[in-house]
Amino acid sequence: MSFPAHITVLYFAAASTTLGITDELVPIPEKGLYLSQLTELLIERHSQSSLNTLRKILDSSQWSIDAEMVDDEDLTKVELKDGMEVAVICPVSGG
Amino acid sequence: MLPPGSSVEGVVELSEAVCSISYALDTVESTIKRVSDDRFGAIATFIGTTRNSFQGKVVTKLEYQAYTKLALKTMTQIIVDARNHTPDFRAVVQHRIGVVGVGEPSIVIAVASPHRNEAFRTCEFILEEVKRKAQIWKREYYEGEDESEAEWKSNV
């Protein structure tokens, strides 16, 4: 089955160091995939990486869509759509 | 590994504030000039620099990345929030990305306001909010450790 829609996932900091990439195009179904389900999808895509580390990082991260933060309690309500830019926001350390 | 394509330089100019992310910082003197105005009697500045140690380990350098377009949005909102407490101030907030060596500055905040109380308070408020929320990450490299093992820090 090929997915007709794609999102761009951006990785920074620990997420990008663990995966060895800074971004990727992820195929998604046109409808019915919610942000809360993205962690599992990404873990499946990267099953050759150190999974425990990746899962820990994704579980401790927040998410943004098209450069707007998504509240943790809204993850199950946000449906992923073609063209979205989704970023994994690990705990920050600026300043 | 190359830094993320979204970790780039960027500037947001608001009315009475400028927020920027860049590989090099302006001089403190030019930053002070930018916030100065005859209606202000106080200018508070904060400069964050790279310390040479962390928990007994010798730090050789720091590296910063940002999700720049979101970090700048966040910094903009922080300025807006600061104005809820203190309407009258002018500010410059600059954060570096890339490698920052020991003793070098990574962030500069300058706030000018009529009186010293608001200048100090607003400068501190902006700093603490940037540390809490801005989508910027710091990686710390230690002497004697392989660079690939360097950890990304968390402010939490």
Automatic annotation (TrEMBL), chain A:
It holds the Pfam family ThiS. It comes from the Eukaryota. The keyword Glycoprotein does not apply. Keywords: Nucleotide-binding, Signal. SUPFAM superfamilies: MoaD/ThiS. One of its GO terms (biological process) is Mo-molybdopterin cofactor biosynthetic process. GO terms for molecular function: nucleotide binding. The keyword ATP-binding does not apply. GO terms for cellular component: molybdopterin adenylyltransferase complex. Residues 1-20 form the signal peptide. This is Molybdopterin synthase sulfur carrier subunit.
From TrEMBL, chain B:
InterPro entries: MoaE_sf, Mopterin_biosynth_MoaE. GO terms for biological process: Mo-molybdopterin cofactor biosynthetic process. It comes from Lentinula guzmanii. CDD domains: MoaE. This is Molybdopterin biosynthesis MoaE. Gene3D superfamilies: Molybdopterin biosynthesis MoaE subunit.
